[in-house]
Structures are given as C-alpha cells and as structure tokens.
Amino acid sequence: MNIVVTGASGYVGSTVLRALTEAGHGVKGIARHADKSAPAGVRWALGDIRDMDLVEPFRGADAVIHLIGIIREIPAQKVTFEAMHVGSTQRVLAAMNTLGIPRLIQMSALGTRPRAVSQYHRTKWEAEQLVRATSHLKATILRPSLIFGGHAPFFDMLGSLAKLPMVPVPGDGNTLFQPVYRGDVAALICALLEDSGTAGKTMEIGGPDRYTLNQLFDFMGAQAGRPHPPKMHLPLGFVGAVARLSNVLPVPVTPDQLAMLTEPNITDDDQWHQWVDQPTTLASGHKK
Ligand SMILES: NC(=O)c1ccc[n+]([C@@H]2O[C@H](COP(=O)([O-])OP(=O)(O)OC[C@H]3O[C@@H](n4cnc5c(N)ncnc54)[C@H](OP(=O)(O)O)[C@@H]3O)[C@@H](O)[C@H]2O)c1
Fold it and tell me: Is the pTM of this model over 0.85?
C-alpha cells in the first residue's frame, strides 16, 4: 500500500516509518523537517500542516496515518492545541475527501473525552469527533497512554529529574499510568492498515503494567543506579502557580501538563491485543 504519515519525523512517527517500510509499504512522511535517519525509500513532503497544500502530497495514497500533535502550546508562534489537533485534522480530512482516500488511522490519546480537564485532551476529542463525522471514511482512532522506548521525551525528563538530590514530585505522586511500548504501537498501526474491519472503532491502548508516578521515578532512577531517589512531594497549588509561569520562564511543566499528570491514565480496553498479543513491558522495552 501507499501510506502517508503526518508527524513522520517525530518520536512515534520514526518508529512507524520503520515498521511500514519493513512491511513493504510505500511511505511518504509529512513534517516540517525530514528525519535523516529514516529508512531508505521514504519520501517526504515538507511543510507546515497549518498551511501547506496536502492534496498533492496525499495523491496516490491508500491510507493516511495522522500523528501530528503537540504537548505544549507556543502561543507566540500560533502553535496552539486548537490549530495542531483540530485544525490539522480538518485539513487532513479535507484532502482525503478531495482525493477519495478511504482509510485513516487517527492518533489521539488516552484520557481524551468531552469536557476533559486539559486542553490537550479536549482538542484531541474535537479532532476525534471530526473524524467520526466524516461518513465515507474508514477510520480507526487510537488512544495510547504514555509511550516508551528509546529516547521517549517524557521518560528522559523523568530520568533527568530522578538524578537530582531530591526529586520534585507534583502532589502525592500516586497517579497511575499504563505505559505502552512504541514498537507495539507501530506494529498495531501496521496491522490495522490491513484490517478495515476496525473502521469506526476507537481503541484505548495501555501497556501490560500500571505504575504510579512515584514508581516511574523509581524505575528511571534505577536505570541511573538510584532505585529509590528521595522525593519531595510538592503541593499541587504551589506547582500550579509555578506552571502558570511556563509562558515566560523555562518551567518544565505547563498547567495543562500538570492537569494530565494528576489524573489516572489507565484503561481496561484490550481490543488491541488481537493484533499485538504480547505487549512489551517497560522493563524489557524502555531502551529499545
Ligand atoms: N509520545 C507519547 O507518549 C504519546 C502518548 C499518547 C499520544 N501521543 C500522540 O502521538 C502523536 C505523536 O506523538 P510524538 O510523541 O511522536 O510527537 P513528536 O515527537 O512531538 O512529533 C510530532 C511530529 O509532528 C511534526 N510537526 C509538529 N508541528 C508541525 C507542523 N506545524 N507542521 C507539520 N508537522 C509538524 C513534527 O515534525 P517537525 O517538527 O519536523 O515539523 C513531528 O514529526 C501525537 O498526536 C501525540 O499527541 C503521544
């Protein structure tokens, strides 16, 4: 098949490109910058999803995998959740509609729901709703929890914090997460391309184990030889006040991210095990 991948140069996209290429698909990546380490044969259409023409890059595609998303807004550059999640999905759907491309894999995120606390999740929900409202489309929506493997930006940040003399933890650190291996997510996406029986479905994707934030710090600390780094639990009101300065100061967490760090991110949905029957554990996959 000929597949277009938006966000192809990103953390998830680079793994998806490899999986698609290994499966023998023709692949075109869309991003502002090409990934120089992408497999040979991957073609690129470079531009900003907010204003680039998508019809020509999409022409000839059998399916689109829409991965573009952001975790932090940059208002000065008009990089907003609304533009990057809702606006980009609108543009992808319009181009697919123009060309009659039938199949879409839409990347959402676990926790996405109407009236979610974070703007990240609310705009992911709006994007999902646009996809659901597009009647001719065979679309499958994926909602992963935190994704790990290789240099996952979130896990790298935990690892850096775990090396500090005292690890700053927002609140009690008991929020549960269910991290999933990026190779498994890529394998799932590849399998779903061939299986349009999942059209119209939304799948939540959690890994085999659940960890509190405290346990994730312990895990990443252990990788650096500090299995139980001492932790300083900071009141949420205080962290929230610091996070509100993130627009003007290099604060590691925004109010939106803080909201997501303090609500459980777990699922009992195991539909995806039909395609990936032995999901990779954090212990075995975090360095791969
Ligand atoms: N990583 C996780 O733990 C996780 C968990 C759940 C869901 N997700 C979702 O999975 C998707 C991929 O996440 P990721 O971690 O791979 O993100 P990422 O590493 O930040 O990658 C984002 C991709 O989007 C591209 N991009 C960003 N702004 C763009 C623009 N204006 N125009 C065109 N391309 C643009 C980036 O390339 P350029 O910078 O070169 O443009 C890059 O290829 C997102 O939708 C995210 O919400 C991720």
Answer: yes
